Amino acid sequence: MKPKPSPHLACYMHSNCLEAGCDEAGRGCLAGPVFAAAVILPPGFECAKLNDSKQLSEKDRNELRNLIENQALCYGVAWCSVREIDEINILQSSIKAMHKALDKLSIRPQHILVDGNRFNPYEDIPHMCIVKGDGKYMSIAAASILAKTYRDEYMKNLHNEFPDYGWAQNKGYPTLSHREAIKKNGITPHHRKSFTLFEKQLKIEF
To answer: Which domain holds residue 102?
Structure first.
C-alpha cells in the first residue's frame, strides 16, 4: 500500500539533489552508546505517519522502521561507544556517529540535513542544521526513527546482561528508578562516567 501524503513534513529542502537526513538517539542517556542514522529517501516520498520519533508509539516506530528500510534509496546506522563519549564528549560523539552513518550510505548524498544546531562538515558535502528538523523534514524524521529503534533494541539486549537497571524500559535515560539502581548496585561498564550519574545533593545536612 502506498503511504499517504504527509500533511506537515517536507520531503526535500532542495528538490534538485539527493539529500540525506541525519539524526541521533541517546544523547541524554546515562548508559549505552549514542546511535545515529542517515537516510536518503526517494524524491516524492510520501508518508502521513512519519514524524519525529519522540512523537510516535513504539509500535508505530517499528512499523515505520520497516517501511523506511524497504523504501529508502539507502540508509546507514552507526554508533559511538561509551568510551568514545567519555573521551571526546557527547556532542562530538553524536556528530562522529552521524559521520559513521553517512559512511555507510551506498549513494553519496549531494546535501545533508542535520537535526539540531551543531555539526562538523562531512567531506565536501554541503549541510544544513535544522533545530527540531525531525518534525520538519521526512529524511530527518526517518533517521530519527532508525536511530531510536536500533538503540532501543541494543539497550533491551543489554538489559538481559544487567537486569537491575531497567534498561528494557528506560533505555538508559536518567529516570528515578535508574538513578536509584545506580545508587544501590553501582555503575556498569556501560555507564557514561563523564555524566552526572547521581543526583546532586540539594540541601546541606547538619
So the answer is: 19-185
